[in-house]
Amino acid sequence: MLTIENLYKSFGKLVAVNDFNLHVKEGETAVLMGPSGCGKSTMIRMINRLIEPDSGRICVSGTEITKLDLEELRRVRKRIGFVFQQFNLIGRLTAVENVMLGLVMDGIPRDAAYDKAMEALEKVGLEKRAQHKSAEMSGGQQQRVGIARALAFEPELMLWDEPTASLDPILVREVLVIMEELAKYRASSMLVVTHEISFAIHVADRIILMDKGSIVEEGMPEDVFGNPASHIGQQYKELIEYQQITNARTLNSKNIA
Amino acid sequence: MSISLAKRKIMNLRKDSFYLDVITLMVVSIVIGSLLATSISMAANSYFSKTLASLVGDYGEYDVLIQSREEMKGDTATHIQKIIEEVFPGARMKEGPTITGKTSFFIAIPEEYRTKQTYEELGKTFGGIPGGAGVGVLTEPRLTIRGVPEGARTMMMDVITQIDGVRFTFRDGSSIGVVLSSLDKATVVTEEIKKVLKQYQVIEISFPVGSEPQNPIRMGESIGDAMKSQLKLEYAKNVSIDGKNDDMTYMVSTMMELKRFLVAYASQVTITPNGSGKLVKGDTIAFTGTGPALAPGNPVDKGNVMVQITAVHTDGKGEGTITQGDAALLTNNQGYRVSNGVISDYVGTAAYQNPRQQLGTALTETTKIVDQIPGFAQDSQNLNKIATLTLDNYSNSITAMEQTLTSLKAAGTTIQTATSGLANIDTKSVQNQIDSSSRSMGGLINTLQVLKLVDSSVGGTVDNLVASQRNLSTLKSGLAALDTVAADARQAKGSIDNIVANGNNTIGTLRAFDVEGTKKNMNSINTRLNQLGQLDTPLVSGQLQYLAAAVPNLKDEEITRSVSVLDKFIAGQAIPGERIQILTTSNISTDAVAPIVYSQVGHQNVSLYSTDLGIIEPNVRGELYSVLNEVRAVLSGMTAIIVTILFLALDHTAIMTVIRCSRINKRKPVEGWRGLLRSAAAIFTGAERIYGMVIGAILITSIFVLGRSGIPYLPWIAVPLVGALIGLIVACYTEKISPMSNDEMMAGQSLGLSVDEIMREIVIPSGRPGLLQKLNQRKMKFK
Lengths: 257, 783
Fold this sequence. Notes:
The structure holds 2 protein chains of 2 kinds.
Chain A (H helix, E strand, L loop, with lengths): L1 E10 L2 E11 L4 E5 L6 H8 L7 E6 L2 E2 L5 H8 L2 E4 L11 H11 L4 H14 L15 H13 L5 E5 L7 H17 L3 E5 L3 H7 L2 E6 L2 E6 L1 H6 L4 H23 L4
Parallel strand pairs in A: 3-8, 3-9, 6-7, 7-8
Antiparallel strand pairs in A: 1-2, 1-4, 4-5, 9-10
Chain B lengths: L1 H13 L3 H39 L7 E6 L3 H15 L4 E8 L2 E7 L7 H5 L1 H4 L6 E6 L4 E5 L3 H12 L4 E7 L2 E6 L5 H14 E7 L9 H16 L4 E3 L7 H19 L3 E6 L10 E4 L17 E8 L5 E7 L9 E6 L2 E12 L1 H66 L6 H28 L4 H22 L7 H25 L2 H20 L2 H14 L5 H18 L5 E7 L4 H12 L5 E6 L2 E3 L2 H47 L5 H14 L1 H20 L11 H15 L1 H4 L4 H9 L4 H12 L4 H6 L7
Antiparallel strand pairs in B: 1-3, 1-4, 2-3, 5-7, 5-18, 6-7, 8-16, 8-17, 9-16, 10-13, 10-15, 11-12, 11-14, 12-13, 14-15
């Protein structure tokens, strides 16, 4: 489905992504994790060339994206759903218009586009907020609109760039629920950049740990977090253990069951 | 590669691309901007023109402007109306605005009265208006030339009148008014007048104080003449009569001459100071004159002679002029200084020279000569008559002499024959012949003696004749003895031969004398003597006697006072004594003129400058309209600038922000001096900056051209630069003016939207409300 080979990107002297190789199978949900500034967002944005890579090769369903001209790239982008950390909704449009935008621009008749958009909004539970503008919605709702917008094209590949990073913990949940559902019930592949360990443990088919622009470890969640091979993996394992202990103690001491 | 790129660009344009939107925006912006600039400027122009027309009428509507005191305007209007009814029937008057207490009246003169004479007599025609403060000319189209020296105005007016398009010229105060046949001739006539003005120059000769010529007008004339003769100039004329009419100038000139005459005949008193006395320029010295004897402490008397010291020599002697009394009264030459009208100390003795007395004596002597003229002429005429008569006899005498010599020759032959037979000789007959010859010769000698008075060259001839006569006497004596002395016959023959030879020589000389020429000269002398005799010598004599008697009567005191009065008048007239103006052709330099000026003024303490003959004065009304036109253009220009700024800020900043974001995103960070260099270069080479500069330049230039805008001191070539500068400044602040959400654009990109779609659906609607937003609404799918 998605194949990345020898991907490289630098900003001056700063190497953001270095010799990055990855393959995501069709229907697979791969979760990319790593410390802040390790190049995760740069890497995921290079997949649909929102950021141009310096070198390397990216293929989506056999199409080598790095070689496409702008017109071809536009067509491929419609097959790739992208959910942004900051939601990136068009402020002047309503929720449904945000979802419809790509569809209408793709030539789909307005009514059909509307139906599709409403369907997408229903999937994220926001059909009642369809006529609201982003400023009238909470962060979680905005992000769900963003998800609906990405889903409306029924993409082959969904890219998630830290979708819960800008949300408070309560709102995170409503987004994660949708993401879990999508991962379970959709056939499309997903590459998710997140710091949500529980989500990764529950949903990911594969965990990819990244540090300083390169993959340091990858594998099944239980392997990576249970028996880490890398320093980053070890840190995540310790973090999981610490959270488990702390949560249990806290819950017991406060008699919250 | 570049061809395919160009094809692609064209294809993009063919499609409904955003590029076309920008082009449409530009066209609409330019049209709206131009209309706005033109409308505002035209509205302002219309307003000012109407205001101006209400104040001074339309262009060419009125011919004369009369200003009068506000409080008299009623009387003034009545008077003007009366005058125009009498002098310019059909003329029309309008009361204009009152400014600073002066009311303006505008008069439109009928076409037939618009003549040179009318304009030159405007002052006279409207001179008696009550409360009148001034008369001016408003006729259009008209040019005014000012600065032309008075002496050159007539010549200039004659030349300008010949120019095609000039209706007539007239004297407008110190300027020349040129009325044109039509407005469209104004440019051509102006150029032609400029050409004429360029053909001439005025050379100004300035004299520093103390070096001024006595009579600048005469001096100017002689410099002009010298320039013409020495530099072979066609034209060099003294025009030093700036701002005055000829009569007044020449009157002043005459007064200056009169002053010179009086000063020349004023007595010059020289005072030799006593041992301790010291004279100072300006001192007044008193002499007794006909007054009481001078004594220190006494007041000055009217009979005293007063001398003012005008100069003090190095030897201490003072020179002065008599300010009271006369030099003739200086019998007592002991002088006392006068201080505050009181006799002070004794200063010395005076000697004087009285040129009037000398002149009187000279005139008396001349009178005597004049009295002798009639007698002298009469005597000369008599003498002339005698000489003429003598000349008439001269030719006859020579003929008689020739006959005598022929007879003598015959006598010689007779004597020779008698030598061989003396007895047969008729001595009596010969003696008679000798007597006859001697008498003839005596007559000739007498004639020649008279002629000798006229022509001394005949003296030798007279002497020869006298000698011949003596020989004849000797011959006669010889003949008396012939009878007895036959031998003497041969001697007689020799004497006769000598007499004949000498006589022939003498006749040759006498014949060489130009009797007719001498007679002609004598006639001429006679004519002149005749004319001399006809002179009214009694009258001349009488006048000379009068002058001889009158000149000494002119008192020094009177001369001094007269000179003082003349000085006051001359100074009051402010004749430009320190400056001479010579009008000449422009092909001569002041360097060439300088030696002539030095020679004429007698020193080199002068400065020479060359100035233009005159300048074409801007027509006030024309200038006003021109200024209004400029104001219109400036307003249009300012509108163009403001509109350009608005269009750039409202419509183009969104585009510039997108371009800037795109540039920044693609840019790779460079550190160190290269980074600084790139940042500096980006000020002008950044894509959004270039876009701003190009759009600014196109917008402002187009609006300037279509709106006929203009800004003083801003050449056309600088207009696009101003536009580019505005565009650059706006581009520098584009993100602040029109901030763009990079996230929204990125969302659009991720949804596979094209640049055009992102611009139309995301960027432009989120930008500043402007023309682009309005135009974009037609293309937007989500309004």
